[in-house]
Amino acid sequence: MGNQTHRISVELKRLFVSLAVLLTCSSGSSEYPPAAASGPSRGSSVETVQFQSTLVNATLPYHVILPPGYRGSGTTRYPVLYLLHGLGGHYSDWVTRTNVADYAAKYRMIVVTPEGNDSWYVDSGGVSTDKYEAYILKELIPDVDQRYRTIQARYGRAVAGLSMGGYGAIKYGLKYPATFVFAGSMSGAFGVTRYTEKEMGGANWEPFLKIFGPVGSETRKANDVFEIARGLPTARVRSLPYFYFDCGTEDGGQHFNANRELSQIFLDKAIPHEYRELPGNHSWAYWDQQVQEVLKIAAGTMRLPRSPARNHSH
Fold first, then answer.
1. Please, are residues 60 and 135 in contact by the beta-carbon 8 Å criterion?
2. Number of domains the chain is built from
């Protein structure tokens, strides 16, 4: 029985490696490639949009990292990676606490870092105006598409994040497969819907109760990534984006164990994904390192425009 289990495990690994290669080959490469850079890189440029959300009834600013040559490229349209921050953080964190703008300059894509406050990127079960999930899907993405030359299709849109943002990104990938071609997570806090008052303590528990409702509530189940993944019918699995997630081996058990469990569910459901465990903890040093991988994999799954150097004949 042990040998049979091992053989099944090996075959599953081969299957997912094959699926990953097939997915990336469709964009013209055999591994996650950097897109062709438009000549010598002069660096990305960062803009800030002060967006007034009707759904949340608040100003929710977001940063936009534009690729080198964006302003001079005329009619070229670019794919967009939406990069979500963690609990206690804000939209500016990615730009100020990592070198993501420099890393993104290698790829012909736009990176957007939205404001999610401490919403867990869900529509709150207890506060009617805290509709952050609806905000991202129904307000933010259309606003970015209106302001910038984006590829307004699934193959030009990806979502990723750290911790709370990693949870949000993977959930969006599972729930909205027609919207995103790739979903990624670093140190994802996937177990959030399982947190209890005993674990969190009185004062810390209140926000989770407001957002997700009481333990066992429908809101909690609807936002549980384990339940969502387990409940997917086979036909739906075929339509999912490609998933990537990782977790540091020195991260806390509530994150590390939840990442392993989610990967196992994905294996059981034959959901194409890549899961990595790497040295590191729940820190900006780890996320600065891993966002480079997320950019690389996102570039390999989205459809990036060709370098202008190849378009001289037009």
1. yes
2. 1
Residue 82 in any domain: the answer is yes
| CATH code where residue 162 lies | 3.40.50.1820
CB of 313 closer than 8 Å to CB of 266? no
Contact 182, 297 (CB under 8 A): yes
- 11 domain-assigned: no
Measure CA 79 to chain center: 14
The residues, ordered by sequence, that sit 6+ positions from 232 with a Cβ below 8 Å of its Cβ are 174, 240, 269, 271
Does residue 1 form part of some domain?
Answer: no
Sequence-distant (6+) residues with CB within 8 A of 214 are 220
* Residue 31, domain member (yes or no): no
So what's the pLDDT on residue 167?
A: 98
Non-local (6+) Cβ contacts of 4 within 8 A are none
Give residue-wise pLDDT tens across range 248-273.
999 999 999 999 999 999 999 999 99
In which domain, by residue range, is 206 found? 41-306
Partnered with residue 161 across adjacent β-strands are 84, 185
> pLDDT tens digit string along 72-91?
888 999 999 999 999 999 99
Tally of residues, the chain: 314
Q: Are 187 and 166 in contact (CB under 8 A)?
A: yes
Q: Which distant-in-sequence residues (6+ apart) come within 8 Å of 48 by Cβ?
A: 61, 62, 63, 64
CA distance 308 to 230: 44
